[in-house]
Every structure is written in structure tokens, then in C-alpha cells.
Amino acid sequence: MILQALVKEYENLAQKGLVSKPGWSQAKVSYAIDLNADGSIKVIYSLQTEDQRGKKIVMVPALLYVPEMVTRSSGVAANFLCDNAKYMLGIDTDGTNDRVKDCFQAAKEKHIALLKDVDNPMAKAICSFFETWNPENAKDNGCVQDKWEELNEGGNLIFCMGMDYAQDDSDIKAAWENSIEANGEEQTGICLVTGERTEIARIHRGIKGVPGAQSSGAALVSFNAPAFESYGKEQSYNAPVGKYAEFAYTTALNYLLSKRENTFSLGDSMIVFWAETGEKKCEDLFCISINPQEDNQEQLQKVFDNLKAMRPIDLDDITIDLTQQFYILCLAPNAARLSVRFFYQNSFGTILKNIEAHYKRMDVVRPSWANDRKFLGIYRMLQETVNMKPKEKKPVANMAASVLQAVLSGNRYPASLYTDTLIRIRSEQGNVTYGRAAIIKAFLIKNYQWKEGEECMGLNESSNETPYILGRLFSVLESIQKDANPGVNTTIRDRYFNSACATPASVFPVLIKLKNSHIKKLEREIGGGSKIYYEKLLTELMEKINAFPQRLSLEEQGKFMLGYYHQTQKKYEKREDK
């Protein structure tokens, strides 16, 4: 399904002229070698341009269509008309050596073999260059010497004469395409993607743009050991994909990964998404809904309101087609290969409904400083499970991808999301932030079918669930201590929260005794009004508790924390501390 969807996306992109045709590829090119008619180097000039990346200005190579580049993992294999300095000039940082000489020799043989019969000034100049160029004397050439360090940084080089690139020359293009047809492989079979009998690709091109994977490209389909092969089929013949389908899916995926508007990172994973029709506004809306910012919360609310009311949804006056298929692919690095964490496809309308339902489950009363953050995006949600002290502030890799998949599909959340949130609260002595409260509420509703929480955004005073009431009771006891001792550094939350949450029977009797002394001090220093208010509230809560439980399960601990958060926020409804 993944490859079929990508092949279809390639065909859509090809119709718009955004990707190369078979036999060609898009490459990042840093320099052009301008040749004289006799093959000597006239000048080497940069093709890089300045680009603003955040606060920095960086030099970005030009994206050009060049003859299809080979997949190199080891050994020597030359590209045609576009390659690095080792192959094109036979040089390395330290000059030249036996391996670099082999690289240049491979490029020389390939270019001469393809261009020797082309009666064309450009082709003759390239052949003359390879026949006369001596890598050992490269430093004697002023053009090379001036750019020695830049040329050896690994960027690609091409040939040109003036402003005419070699790969754009019609005679050279014809020679390249004829060579592709002549070099067909004999093995044919039924392509798993198209269902047609065709020539099968032996090796699949690398996929670039996944952080942590090999920068030269990692394989999505690959077999490198007999244990992975079957029926005597070696390499990618073990999963027969036609040469056209292989070119199409790798080209489409590399194109999507190169576009920041079609990707975002989550943990160690790279998320790639695209709409069936290629509608950019549809993809923009998905990105907004997954990672909303403070300045588009109202826009997203309008989208969800229209979705519930079954009204048309538009973005910048462009109506979104909710019936079209939408695809989300989650990739993670795995040495020289890529791991597919998940692949999900559905109608765009269904995906939006699942995201809206997730945000509804996550809706909790928030501090006043967070009132403009109604929709807590996936990234910020996952940050609530992370220890912010270490340098690496990333959520658990598998958990992050599983959470996103659950949100998109409307399935149950992974258990690790809930347990990691509880662990963070306990490790921070009861620091229940609004994000953590939202996660607990959503998890209890979805995974434990907690019907009572569905309509409970804030404090539920009618709830009779013991864990929830215990959480409220703990919050009230903490408030009494704080009011009786203004400016106190360490409260009962710091010392008793974890044990009160796990084993209430062993802690609450102690807290009730402490409360008595705090109440007396409160009455003595502030007055009887606060005492009456708190005693009335305590009485209401204690009447709902038959006995303090010996232990609370994980589900009950979540309700305890939610009760604590709701009661604490109720206290600060009118005077909110940031």
C-alpha cells in the first residue's frame, strides 16, 4: 500500500512537472566546471545561493535535473555528468591516492564510453577533459587551487560551457537515454506494485532526508543477508518491484522529504504527509491541526465548528475536499535502512474528525496564562512526558509515533503515554500541569471508557468516585497549609503527594492531623471566615469517603491527579498565578 500510494503521488507530481522522468533525478549541485572547447578548465563557479534558515543565512546548492545517480554504499561507481570532486577531478582533501584515482578512472571510462560517438562541441570538450586531465597535477591548475577546500566538501559538480549545462544538451540527453534502454536487465517478473509483468529492479535507490539515517540515502526496500531472502531470490528480487515503480516511489518520497511543508519531526521519527490531489491548502490544514500555534487557535476552532456542523471548510478562501484520500507515513532511521513506524490513509474528513475528537478529550480548564492554548499540539503534548533537565529533551521514540497514530486513527492511546505522564508527575512531586491533566483525562476517557470525564472540563463537584475525591481533598489540605503559612517553601505536596496518590490509607490520617494545627493557625492569624469555608468544604468531601483505600490502581491514580488539578484550578479561578 505504501509503494502504491507513492507511485500514484509520483504520477501526480510528474503531471505538474515537479519531478524528473525515469532515467533522471534531481540533485543538489554546488559547482559548475566551465570547459573550453579543447577540454581545459576555463573557470569553476559556484551554483549555491543564500537562504534564510531561522536566524542564520546559509549557502544552499542548486537543485538541478541530472542523469539518474547511482546508489553507492561501498566500492567505486561513477555517475554521469554530476558527481563529487573525487570522480570529476580525481582529488581529495589531501590531494590524490589510489582510491581517488580509481574513482576518476571510473568516471573517465563512463563518460568516454557514452560520449565518444556524439558529434557535439559539449561532448567533445568533456571527452577531451577526461583524456587530458591529470589528477596529480590538479593543484597546479589555478581554478582548482582557488576553490580547493570548497570542492572537497563533498558537493556535486557538473560540466558546462558558458551558461549551457551538459545535462541539458539535446545530443547528450539522447545518448544517455539510449544507453539506459540498451542496458536493460534480463530478470522479469510480476511487479508487486503495478501487477504488471515487467523488468524487476535489482537495487532500490536510497531515500534521503530522514534525520539519523545515512546522509547518502537509506533503503526502504532492501535485503542484505540470506536470512532475509527466500526461494533463492537475492537482493530486491526477493520483493519484486518493477523498475518504473521503484523509480516512481523513490522519486516521490525523496521529493516529499525535501519539502518542509510536507514533513515534520516527532521524536526520532520523520512524518511525511500528502493529499491525494496534491492540494497544498489541505496539507497546510493538516499541519495546523497537528501542531497548532497560538496565532491559529481561532482558525482551527472555526474549522472544527464547520466540521461538526457539516459546513464546507475553507482555508484562505479555498474550499477543502474532505472526501479525498490523505496519507501519513512515519519513518525512522535504522542503520542503512529505514524503519516504517506506521502508514495511515483515510479520507481527509475522517482524519480531521479523529483529531477534533482527540482535542475534545484533552480539553481541561487551563491557567489564565494558557487560555490562548486551547489545542495542545502533539509535540507539546509529548513534551509533558519528558524530563526537561537533560540536554536530550525528546519523548520515547516508539511512544511518540504510537501516540500520533492513535490520534489520527481514533484508536486507543499507547499505555506508555499514560505511565510516562504519571512518572513525570511523581518524579516532580505532584506537578500536575494542565498538559499532563489533559493527557490523563483523554487517556481515561479513551482507554478506560471513563464516561464521567467526557463532559468534565473542570471541577466535577457531583463526582462520588473515591480517587477523584481524594485528589480534591489533598488539594484542599494543601491550600489550608499555604494559607496558614504564606510563603512556605515546602508543602505537603512535596513530601506526601506520591504516597497519598498510591497508598492513601497510610498518609491521609497524618495529613488530617496536620490540618488541625493549620486550621487553628489560620483562625488565629486570618480570622474565622477561612476556617468556616475550609471546614465546610472538608465536611462535604469526607462525607463522600467511606474509608481511605489501602492502594490505588494506575487508573485510580490518574483520577486522583485529575481531582487534585481540578480543585487547585478552582481555587485560582479569580486570581490566577502564572
Shape call: elongated
Helix content: 40-55%
Strand fraction equals: 5-15%
Q: Mean of residue pLDDT?
A: 89
Number of helices: 20
Please compute the radius of gyration using only Cα atoms: 32 Å
Largest sheet data: 6 strands, mixed
Tell me the total number of β-strands: 16
- Contiguous uncertain segments of 5+ residues: none
Which class of secondary structure composition applies to the elements? alpha+beta
Give the N-to-C terminal Cα separation: 49 Å
Q: How is this structure best described in words?
A:
The protein is of the alpha+beta class and 578 residues long. The chain has 20 helices and 16 strands. The longest helix is centred in the last third of the chain and has 22 residues, at 504-525. The protein is elongated and about 105 Å long. The protein starts with a helix and ends in a 7-residue tail after the last helix.
Write the layout of secondary structure elements.
Blueprint: H1 2-15, E1 24-35, E2 41-46, E3 49-53, E4 56-60, E5 62-67, E6 82-83, H2 85-88, H3 98-115, H4 121-132, H5 142-146, H6 148-151, E7 156-161, E8 164-165, H7 170-182, E9 188-190, E10 197-199, H8 243-257, E11 263-266, E12 269-275, H9 280-290, H10 297-308, E13 314-315, E14 318-319, E15 325-334, E16 337-347, H11 348-362, H12 378-383, H13 397-409, H14 415-427, H15 434-447, H16 466-484, H17 492-502, H18 504-525, H19 528-542, H20 554-571
Parallel strand pairs: 1-7
Antiparallel strand pairs: 1-2, 1-5, 3-4, 6-7, 7-8, 9-10, 11-12, 12-15, 13-14, 15-16
Helix pairs in contact: 1-8, 3-4, 9-11, 11-15, 14-15, 15-20, 16-17, 16-18, 16-19, 16-20, 17-18, 18-19
